[in-house]
């Protein structure tokens, strides 16, 4: 018999699977036998069978072996790896301790899992599982509060993604009451002196990782990182001849401001490059500057205090939207630094303030 809470958790995880995901995810899980997996394939192939019946069959197959909370957590982690955009993520930057800067202390996923689990056990009961995907280490942390018979609250589950040998770790939402303990455990496990949030958040995990790990090769420079150029830009070797464009222009179409159009395209290309932009769902600016619209609001002309307000850009891909606005001439070009270089600043929450003038020292 399966524990009622474990069975409930298993049904909850399986209920999120799409029909075409069952076989692949269960195969990665490696908990059920190959014969049971073939039986699941047969049920999936039957178009008349409902997903509810499929979930029920998988639950019955798991009763052959002793199902544990840890096994269900591993299956949940597999699902999250395939659907990372279901979570809201925040990026944190790590600072290495001086004595560990020249060598990598955590050399393997198993060592990291062991050290992190040991550190977390000082603060609370937990269930920790780790899986690799590509060059990233994925961690699922389940924090147990109360007795083992109580169901694990979704707010007590934290997902972490760490690229080894990098100074960044990406975390899903975490309860305030747990945050300090988890941060301290990460510091001790990775032998770091500081961990701080860098104001880079969003749902597209791959974009957040790209913005953090490759902040110096975004925009126009992304073509070199992605291998889209024929040769090294510093090399004197001639590039290969490109095929002529097959597009046939319509001679009846005449652009009235051809020079302006070409200049605008060059400015956009220089700022954003030719590749699709990393996906950020929000860019937020908090303004703490003097009011600059006194011609429209004369009463504000004598105001000396900073003018406080927030400006938000929201959408499925804000950077791509800003790029397209520039293309069609709906923004003034060149864009200001805090707007045109967001992809290279590794953050999407900004504070804009007037520069403080430094008075010269009196002799």
TrEMBL record:
Keyword Plastid applies: no
Entry annotated with the keyword S-adenosyl-L-methionine: no
An annotated GO cellular component: chromosome, centromeric region
Pfam family, one: CENP-N
Protein location: Chromosome, Centromere; Nucleus
Domain of life: Eukaryota
GO biological process: CENP-A containing chromatin assembly; chromosome segregation
Keywords for the protein's UniProt record, in alphabetical order: Centromere, Chromosome, Nucleus
Family the entry assigns: Belongs to the CENP-N/CHL4 family.
Entry protein name: Centromere protein N-like
Species in which this protein is naturally found: Acanthaster planci
Lineage start: Eukaryota, Metazoa, Echinodermata, Eleutherozoa, Asterozoa
